[in-house]
Specification:
Elements (H helix, E strand, L loop, with lengths): L6 H12 L3 H16 L9
């Protein structure tokens, strides 16, 4: 079984977020939070 190291992608994401201002981080958090609350983003594959 082949394993893929996805940590570098998370590290890049964390570094990009760290460069944002606090207001930008809060806006991003609000967007992600709203998306997670929407049931229509989970598509049924039937």
């Amino acid at each position: 079984m082949a394993s893929v190291n996805i940590w570098p992608a998370y590290q890049d994401f964390a570094q990009a977020i760290a460069k944002l201002t606090l207001d930008e981080q809060l806006s991003l958090l609000e967007i992600i939070s709203a998306r997670l609350k929407k049931p229509d983003i989970i598509k049924n594959k039937e």
